Amino acid sequence: MGLIALIIFLVMAAVLGVMIALDIRKAKKNNVKYHFKQCVIGYLMMAPAVALAFIFVLLPILFSLGYAFTDYHMYYPNDINVVGFDNFGTLFKEIGMKGELYHAILNTLLFVVCVVPLQIGLALVLALFTNRKKRGVKIFKICFFAPVVISLTVTSFLWLQILSPTESGLLNSFLGMFGIAPVDFLAQPGTAMLWIVLLSAWQGCGYQMLIFSSGLTNIRDDLYEAASLDGAGWWQKFTKITLPGLRSTLLYITITVFVGACRVMIQPMLMTGYQLHTVTLSYYMYQLGYGSHLIGLSSAVALLMTIVIGTITLLQRKLLREK
Amino acid sequence: MELSREKLLRVKNVNPAPLVVPKNKKKIALDVVWYVVGIIVSLIFIMPILYMLAVSTKSQIAADRASGIALFLPDFANLGTFFNNYRKVFTDYGIWRNALNSIIYAAIAIVLNILVNGLAGYVLSKFNFPGKKFFTFIVLFLIIVPVETSIIPLYTIVTQLLGLHGRMTVLGVILPSVISIFNIFLFMQFFESIPKDYEEAARIDGAGNLKIFFKIILPLSKPIVATVAVFCFIGVWNDYLWPMMLLTPYPEMMPIQAVLQTIQNIEGVTTGEIMASLVVTSIPIFIIYIAAQKYIVQGFGSAGLKM
User: Fold this and answer.
1) How many beta-carbon pairs under 8 angstroms link A with B?
2) Same domain as B139, residue B49
3) CA-nearest residue of chain A to B144?
4) Are residues B136 and B216 in the same domain?
5) Hey, which of A231, B94, B102, B280 has its CA 20 to 30 A from B32?
């Protein structure tokens, strides 16, 4: 592994060397002079960042790419064989057999399809709702934002208590008032993921609300006034002024919420553990690598995820930008 | 936009409306509805949090017995045992040690984060040197690439390539949160807006590059430094998975989020104690959000730059 890291380092250094040579030649042509001492100092000042970025950002990405085509097992770091596309074959077979990966994909899909519209819609509604200059608006905003402040870990453990299957759990004690027997919400294959969707949207939407709010303040008031004079209703104002005005905000929020949703893992991990009805792609990948020590296979999942998420993100960018 | 210039012109020609518009009944009714809806939705949003706060003051018996509105109210009947759960979490479960760990990790990460990324941003925005394009390209490239999926390779790098174990594992916990390509980008953007005159004046006075960075650039960039510091603190304090992966064999070095899991699994732990540990974990972030509102909103603005 050290050898590969060294090779990557040398390749990067070589590319840098070529770039430097090109820059110097160009500078000579244009009669720009570099201050030698300043160049050295500049490189020295950048050195810590370059070193850390190389080890903790660049290497993991490149390694992840490379591992996907090997049979790397965590306990045998000295016995790594290149296996070509075998890992991907194994994964597709797993999907075909409706194994864990199949469920992980389905659960992640369900989560993304539910949470993205719910969270963005909720955030937009809350932002529009608080977009008034009225006394008390700030208190409302603080209440809507409060869940964001709580970390995902705390959120998961808090909701674990709320959804607790015992009679004293918050939700079950509510149901108890209507004479309904305690339900183990997180053990139900049909609803467990939906509860995770709900609490994730609850936790996250305040953040997007604030971003929408700042987007709303950028829309000029006179547009609304002109529309009112024209006799436009609130729906027309919303679709003809508000939405177009929020386009870039919406693009940013859609992509970040989508990517975040694809990576969901802490909530199912802490609330149900590794269960077929709640396992997600990230969780599956993590479990393969950290739990089962199959780093090669895990990296193959990571590579597939990156490709799929990357493609969809690009598509979203195109769709939302072109109009 | 269909609302043409003609319409806007018409707006201008309209007789000025009277400044004080008499409120009609319809408007007042709308306001009332708005307030009522707002209060109801706000209550729904903070209900789980109120529940957490309320239960954290109750003994198991009191928590089980509570119903209706009492579920969301603290245990005023037993003020003597009001903070019992907190006492237990701090003394028996020793959560203060993990809180201290988290604070130390966050403090180190913040200082190094600003230094390392700030210096890189300074060089990339203000210096002219061969190879500058290469590094600028790498920064822009790495911002786009999703990094989250590389946590397993990162783990192999820390444990096998760097071979960190024992007390040194702490380095593996802190160092990845020190480097942030996005922060380099933020610093670059901000430093570029600082006029060159400041630097040149200092250079004439004989100041070196480092002195210029610490005495001129950083003080002029207080807002961005504060924003980076705040988000770095929140990031490190709230991080769960990464420290958990590295520090499972070393519970005494765990940060606060990781110890929450341990507390859940203690035999005989009460709901109240769990809730108390959750409250203790959330309080510093609440304080940060309230104290640093301004910088956090700025952070939202800079988040838009990412696109």
Assistant:
1) 274
2) no
3) A310
4) yes
5) A231
> Which of B42, B53, B149 has the highest number of chain A CBs within 10 A, making it the mutation to test binding with A?
B149
pLDDT at B27: 83
- Among B28, B58, B129, the residue to mutate for chain A (most A Cβ within 10 A): B129
What residues in A contact B257, CB-CB < 8 Å?
151, 153-154
Do residue B102 and residue B240 come from a single domain?
Answer: yes
Residue B126 in domain: yes
Residues of A in contact with B43 (CB under 8 A): 143
Last residue of a domain, one of B27, B51, B80: B80
How far apart (Å, rounded) are the C-alpha atoms in residues A208 and A252? Answer: 10
Do B99 and B223 fall within a single domain? yes
User: Can you give the pLDDT at residue B305?
Assistant: 47
Chain B touched by A259 (CB under 8 Å): yes
Q: Do B150 and A202 touch (CB under 8 A)?
A: no
CB-based contacts of A278, cutoff 8 Å, min separation 6: A107, A186, A192, A193, A196, A268, A271, A272
Within 8 A of A214 by CB-CB distance, chain B residues are 297, 300-301
Whether residues B60 and B145 share a domain: the answer is no
User: How confident is the model at residue B21, as a pLDDT?
Assistant: 54
Contact A299 B127 (CB under 8 A): no
Residues of chain A with Cβ-Cβ distance to B51 below 8 Å are: 158, 162, 170
B136 and B33 in one domain? no
Residues B274 and B156 in one domain: yes
Q: B110: pLDDT confidence band, cut at 50, 70 and 90?
A: very high
Residue B70 domain-assigned (yes or no): yes
Q: Under 8 Å CB-to-CB from A302, ≥6 apart: which residues?
A: A64, A68, A285, B149, B150, B152
Judge whether A250 and A243 are in contact, CB under 8 Å.
yes
What are the backbone angles phi and psi of residue B6, rounded to the nearest 5°?
Answer: -55, -45
pLDDT band, residue B8 (cuts 50/70/90): very low
Looking at the complex, report in whole angstroms how far the Cα of residue A197 sits from the nearest Cα belonging to chain B. 15
B67 shares its domain with B112 = no
Residue B254: C-alpha distances to residues A305, B170, B198, B249, B273 (Å): 30, 9, 44, 9, 19
The range of the structural domain enclosing residue B195 comes to: 93-306
The count of domains in chain B is 2
Contacts of A171 in chain B (CB under 8 A): none
Give the ranges where B92-217 is alpha helix by DSSP (H): 95-126, 132-144, 151-156, 169-178, 181-192, 196-204, 209-212
Eight-class DSSP state of B165: -
Task: Find out whether B202 and B133 touch, Cβ atoms under 8 Å.
Answer: no
Q: What is the pLDDT of residues B88-101, one digit of tens each?
A: 888 888 899 999 99
Q: Closest approach of chain A CAs to the CA of B131, in angstroms?
A: 5
- pLDDT at res. B23: 61
- This model of the complex carries an ipTM of 0.86
Model confidence over B151-186: pLDDT tens digits?
888 998 898 888 888 888 899 999 999 998 989 998
- Looking at chain A from residue 92 to 121, which residues have their Cβ under 8 Å from any Cβ of chain B? none
pLDDT for residue B113:
95
- pLDDT tens per residue across span A124-183: 999 999 988 888 888 998 899 999 989 999 999 999 988 988 877 888 888 888 888 888
Residues of B in contact with A175 (CB under 8 A): none
CB contact under 8 A, A299 and B152: yes
The structure tokens 């409250």 sit at B279
pLDDT above 90 (res B282): yes
